[in-house]
Every structure is written in structure tokens, then in C-alpha cells.
Amino acid sequence: MNRFNALLFSLLLSLAAPPGFSQATTEALADEGERLAALLRVGRRVVSNNQTLINDPDRGDKGLDSAAFLAKVDAAYRAQHGQGPLDGDLSDTQRRLTEAQLAAMATVLDENQELINSEGLGFKGFIPAIFGRLVNEQFAEQVGSEARLKVTAPMHLVRNRKARPDDWEAGVFNGQFSQPDWPRSQAFFETVATGEGEMFRMLIPEYYGETCLTCHGGPKGEVDVTGFPKEGAAAGDLAGAISITLKRE
């Protein structure tokens, strides 16, 4: 994080903390959100890196059961962050939510073994976006309103109705993230009052990489392998965001 981003992060921390929420509490919530997003991203990347294997029509058992998948996730997370997702000085809440997220990934892999191992079928549709949505749904079943993750995007980029932004997310897309001077990859967060109590909300922008352009690049309007028209995006364009909601009593 450069000096400017560090200063902005500190400012956002102070602005996001309402009465009853200290800056230290807000910082802990922001760190918790970043950790959840980081693990989700690693899981999606493992799915992406294994697309050729998953879509191999000539091979049955892909050797990608939940145990093998979680081993790949752990290795990829260690390579990026220097330690495993459950290593380090985690709070009880961080450990519980991380374990729930890993369990959600295992459940998704277990429930999709028949599809992944189907012989004679090429493209399976088990892609990072689908994996991410299914994991987030499983995670929600385990932790309830304590924490929620969602991958969303500006309305003109949404392909699945479940990914549509709510009013708060749309406001950030049309506000902060649309500003030309908003620092790349900088999350926006604040605490908002809801019918469920005070919620810490965080939106972490994501951008198209080169591998995304197979489905989301050009030519614009051409139907991709998933059956959707391509957006005509370029690498580095805003693709969407990971939305995180954390509840504290």
C-alpha cells in the first residue's frame, strides 16, 4: 500500500466508525472483510487454473475432490500471503468465519463431483463465477446474518440476477468507484443502520484480467462459451466487486 492509499485507508477508518464503533473495531472489521475476500479469490483462482482439467471430456475422475481442492487452496494462499488461511494470530471470529468459508468450498466441490467427473462432456459450466456464487450461498447457510459475501457488479455488467447490486452497492459503483481519482483496488466501507442492527459494509473492486477476456472481452456482443454476449471489456476495466456485510452486536 503506497503512502496515499495508506492515508486514505486511515481516513476511511475514521469516517466509517459511528458512535459505539471505535476506529480499532472498524479496522478489525475491515481486516476481517479483506481476509474473507482474499480466500474467496484464491478459491476462484484454483477453479480457473483447473479449467482445462475440469473440462477434459476424455477423463473421468479428475482427482479434484474436496480434499484435493482445499489442499490446492491452502498452497495457493500460502504462496500469496506467506501463511495458510488458518495460520497466524486469528481472533475467534476470524477463525470461525474462515473455517466456515473453507467448509463451504468443500461442500460445493462434493456436490459437483458428478458434473466435474462427467466423461464425454467438454465445457461443464463449473467456472470461477459459478463456484464463487455457490460458495457464498453455502457460507450464508452456515453463518446466517453474522457475515455475508456476494460478488456483484454495476447493473450493465450483471449476468446473473442474484448478482444484482442492492441500493448501497449501486451507490458505491455510481459514486466512489466512478470517480477517476479513486485509487485502484481501494475498498470502500462504512457502517450503516439497518433493520437487523448496525452493519459494517465493504465493497472491494475487482478488475478484468487477461484470462477474463475470453468471455468478457471482444468483439462486443459475440456470444461466449457460457451463452452470454461479451461485454467488450479490456484488461484493467472495472469488472465488479466483492461485497461484504459483517454484523456486530
Structure description:
This protein is α+β, with helices and mostly antiparallel strands. It has one domain. The chain is built from nine helices and four strands, in the order H-H-H-H-H-H-H-E-H-E-E-H-E. A four-stranded antiparallel beta sheet has the order 1-4-3-2. Strand 2 and strand 3 form a beta hairpin.
What key attributes describe this structure?
alpha+beta; globular; 45% helix; 249 residues; four-stranded antiparallel beta sheet
Write the layout of secondary structure elements.
Layout: H1 3-16, H2 23-49, H3 51-54, H4 66-81, H5 92-111, H6 113-116, H7 128-143, E1 147-152, H8 167-174, E2 188-194, E3 197-207, H9 213-216, E4 238-247
Antiparallel strand pairs: 1-4, 2-3, 3-4
Helix pairs in contact: 2-4, 2-5, 2-7, 4-5, 5-7
Organism: Sulfitobacter aestuarii
Signal peptide: 1-24
Domain Tll0287-like: 97-245
